[in-house]
Amino acid sequence: MSTPAKLELVSFKICPFGQRSVIALNLKGVEYTLTYITPQDTPDWFKAISPLGKVPVLLVDGKPLFESAVILEYLDEVYSPQLHPADPLEKAQQRAWIEFCSELLGRQHRMLTAKEEAGFNEARESLQQGLQRLESALDADGPFFAGKDMRLVDTVYAPLFMRLDLLQKHFDLDFGLSTRLQTWRDALLALDAVKTSVVEDFESAFLNFLKMQDSYLLTRKQ
Ligand SMILES: N[C@@H](CCC(=O)N[C@@H](CS)C(=O)NCC(=O)O)C(=O)O
Questions:
Q1: For all residues of the chain together, what is the average pLDDT?
Q2: What is the pLDDT of residue 1?
């Protein structure tokens, strides 16, 4: 039997793309180490392994893998339980919705960092429209994306919902999630693999990040 690969994930504490990789690792029960670096001060060794200067990077026996969707695919090919569906069309569709999530995370980031009301509103509306569009892809019964089983596509939406929850709690930002989306969110956020995918002080780290942005959100009148 070959020795299992040594896995080291490099991320930022509040990066949703790093968090999705952690969720996948947790669901698979794989041993790994997690190294957090800070965005303001990325070390030279990290710059050398990350072609785009972005986290996450997964080191597999020291060999770097970048781009979170690729990291997820790799983990799913190598470690059980398999989270992607076997059917090629279903799998391709779920990959596409993983891409869609990355777009929604971009809209969320734009909203959180907008300095002016107009930019904030534009990003907020496009995020809300994206969430409504997403609903059309969901299995009607749920609770997960494709039904009762958690899939790889679910791992990427948990970080988005976790942040939406905090925005509701601290800034009364309501996205009017449908009952189906709420059911999905609740099922995801209740999972141990998701709860343990962030640092204990995630909430304060996330709020600190927002403060550092000096964004419109912080001064917005509700
Ligand atoms: N497409 C990338 C996006 C990763 C990403 O945007 N990471 C952010 C942190 S959440 C980052 O490293 N930003 C630093 C930078 O852009 O310089 C992925 O899926 O891995």
A1: 96
A2: 58
